[in-house]
């Protein structure tokens, strides 16, 4: 009688696979030799028997039906089948006399009614084992999820802690993850550039292989790094230690969404499409003449008298506009230091606000609990439940971060003021670098309704920048001396400007960012002497 040796493995772990299969084959060869069985082929399969559809197993049965062999030699019946379909096929072929013998070193099979009955029970036990194992695993996952524990293999930046069965921060790789988010949030680097920079520092994934661009993209999109995680479409609040803040994560998503939009081809004429003619309202177009770029009105269906303007002249006007709202590095550093001091003082006096945020967090937890009840009662669909739960959890995370980093203040004045000041500083960098594409982006940020008339660019200042563009007496906010007038104060008074540059920033911080303690009220030019001295002394300067 001819036999097939059939060995099966059901795991994808290479080391465990090789040992499992090798162990089966050694035992089966020895058994065949001991029992003087004729083996015509050894078949090895790396596939679970939980579901039907194993190609090598099906091919083996087809060859037996074609009378290539009459028996099967396997380690145990559960190697042949763990589902009712494949188990039924084996028993049916035995009933038909097509399979004449089944041999197992760990199980005795007799080709009679009792033997087939016991074989069917063994197949049923194998199916029960795999079903019970799946149910136990699902029960364990549900328990982990209810406790906010990530239920799968730890992602890069974390390690699986066998003792607590949770994930813990990988102190070796977590700093690389944090750096990746920080770099990408600036908007200055592509995923490929971040890959090259971080990999060069020694960042590796599993099996010590360098990470790819797609892996960095998945990392930057994974909320697990700020303390939340998604599992099968539902969002959970994790108990693991976050690597980054939610604010940084949200900023990265904004950058990624912007980069994900269809890329515009590089413009030959940077400022084309930005302006309209101040005389006829037609769009301003551009063309090249004798090696120079010129901007002009399209004069479509109208007799417009406006003349050309060279790109260099237009760029100089835009540079001058940006300089009005730019802030030098020295002033930026000093102002940020003062804001940091104010934030620390605010933390000390923020107990009522802290208590309010704690109450808000408690209320969100209560809403989530009620949300679960509504879902279980059938009032909310699964999709509505998941969407509302994710919204509440993200709101709770925002509140927790405000409580942790800003002392529970009711408004995020420090971060808003800091972003504003650093934005002004970036404008100075853009001007110095001379990149017209970047200058156009900042110009559109600070204004709208751009009009070109008499070769002069005019526009409507936007929001926060409106006051500074209207009153800024100098190209940049620096303490400078006039060639004729002796002091900065005299220049300000002579020009009839109400606020001097530092007061412009003070006014913003006072009116828009929660009444900054560094400058408790806007500085008025009518009381310039005392206010100017007070403000500069506060920054470590003395007036000119």
Please give a quick description of this structure.
This protein is an alpha/beta fold. It has 19 helices and 14 strands.
What's the topology here?
Blueprint (H helix, E strand, L loop, with lengths): L1 E8 L4 H21 L3 E9 L8 H11 L5 E4 L2 H4 L3 H12 L5 E3 L9 H34 L11 E4 L4 E4 L4 H12 L5 H10 L12 H8 L7 E4 L2 E4 L8 H15 L15 E2 L6 E6 L2 E6 L11 E2 H14 L4 H20 L2 H27 L4 H24 L7 H21 L2 H11 E7 L2 E6 L4 H6 L16 H8 L5 H12 L15 H11 L6
Parallel strand pairs: 1-2, 1-3, 3-4, 9-13
Antiparallel strand pairs: 5-6, 7-8, 10-11, 11-12, 13-14
Helix pairs in contact: 4-5, 6-7, 6-9, 7-8, 10-15, 11-14, 12-13
Features:
544 residues, alpha/beta, Rossmann fold, four-stranded parallel beta sheet, 14 strands, elongated, disordered C terminus
Q: How does this model look, in words?
A:
There is one protein chain. The protein is an alpha/beta fold. Among the domains are: 141 residues, Resolvase, N-terminal catalytic domain (Rossmann fold), CATH 3.40.50.1390; 103 residues, Alpha-Beta Complex (Hect, E3 ligase catalytic domain fold), CATH 3.90.1750. It is built from 19 helices and 14 strands. Strands 2-1-3-4 form a four-stranded parallel beta sheet, sandwiched between helices. The protein has a three-stranded mixed beta sheet with strand order 9-13-14. A three-stranded antiparallel beta sheet has the order 10-11-12. Strand 10 and strand 11 form a beta hairpin. Helix 4 packs antiparallel against helix 5, helix 10 packs across helix 15 and helix 12 runs antiparallel to helix 13.
């Amino acid at each position: 009688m001819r036999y097939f040796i059939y060995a099966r493995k059901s795991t994808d772990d290479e080391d465990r696979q090789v040992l499992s299969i090798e162990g089966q084959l050694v035992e089966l060869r020895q058994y065949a030799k001991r029992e003087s069985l004729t083996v015509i082929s050894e078949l090895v399969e790396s596939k679970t028997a939980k579901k039907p559809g194993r190609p090598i197993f099906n091919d083996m049965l087809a060859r037996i039906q074609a009378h290539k062999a009459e028996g099967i030699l396997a380690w145990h019946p559960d190697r042949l089948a763990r589902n009712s379909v494949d188990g039924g096929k084996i028993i049916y072929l035995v009933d038909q006399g097509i399979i004449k013998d089944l041999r197992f070193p760990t199980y005795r099979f007799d080709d009679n009614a009792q033997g087939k009955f016991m074989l069917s029970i063994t197949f049923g036990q194998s199916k029960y084992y795999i079903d019970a194992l799946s149910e136990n695993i699902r029960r364990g996952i549900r328990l982990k999820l209810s406790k906010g524990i990530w239920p799968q293999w730890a992602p890069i930046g974390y390690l699986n802690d066998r003792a607590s069965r949770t994930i813990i921060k990988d102190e070796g790789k977590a700093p690389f993850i944090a750096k990746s988010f920080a770099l990408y949030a600036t908007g200055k680097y592509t995923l490929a550039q971040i890959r090259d920079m971080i990999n060069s520092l020694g960042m590796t994934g599993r099996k010590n292989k360098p990470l790819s661009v797609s892996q960095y993209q998945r990392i930057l999109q994974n909320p697990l790094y700020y303390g939340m995680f998604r599992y099968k479409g539902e969002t959970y609040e994790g108990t693991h230690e976050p690597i980054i803040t939610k604010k940084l994560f949200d900023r990265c998503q904004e950058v990624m969404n912007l980069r994900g939009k269809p890329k515009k081809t590089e413009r030959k004429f940077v400022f084309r499409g930005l302006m309209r003619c101040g005389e006829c309202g037609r769009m301003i177009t551009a063309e090249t003449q004798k090696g120079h770029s010129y901007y002009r009105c399209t004069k479509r269906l109208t007799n417009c008298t406006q003349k050309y303007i060279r790109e260099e002249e237009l760029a100089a006007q835009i540079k001058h506009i940006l300089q009005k709202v730019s802030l030098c590095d020295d002033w930026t550093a000093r102002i940020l230091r003062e804001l940091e001091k104010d934030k620390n003082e605010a933390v000390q006096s923020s107990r009522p606000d802290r208590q309010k945020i704690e109450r808000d967090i408690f209320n969100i937890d209560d809403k989530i609990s009620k949300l679960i009840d509504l879902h279980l009662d059938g009032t909310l669909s699964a999709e509505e439940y998941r969407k509302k739960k994710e919204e509440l959890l993200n709101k709770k995370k925002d509140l927790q971060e405000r409580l942790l980093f800003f002392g529970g203040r009711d408004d995020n004045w420090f971060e808003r003021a800091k972003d504003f000041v650093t934005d002004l500083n970036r404008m100075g960098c853009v001007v110095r670098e001379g990149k017209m594409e970047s200058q156009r982006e900042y110009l559109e940020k600070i204004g709208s309704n751009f009009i070109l008339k008499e070769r002069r660019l005019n526009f409507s200042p936007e929001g926060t920048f409106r006051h500074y563009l209207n009153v800024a007496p100098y190209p940049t906010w620096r303490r400078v001396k006039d060639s004729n007038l002796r002091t900065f104060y005299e220049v300000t008074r002579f020009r009839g400007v109400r606020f001097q540059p530092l007061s412009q920033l003070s006014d913003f911080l006072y009116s828009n960012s929660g009444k900054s303690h560094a400058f408790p009220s806007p500085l008025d030019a009518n009381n310039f002497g005392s206010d100017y001295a007070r403000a500069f002394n506060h920054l470590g300067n003395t007036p000119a």
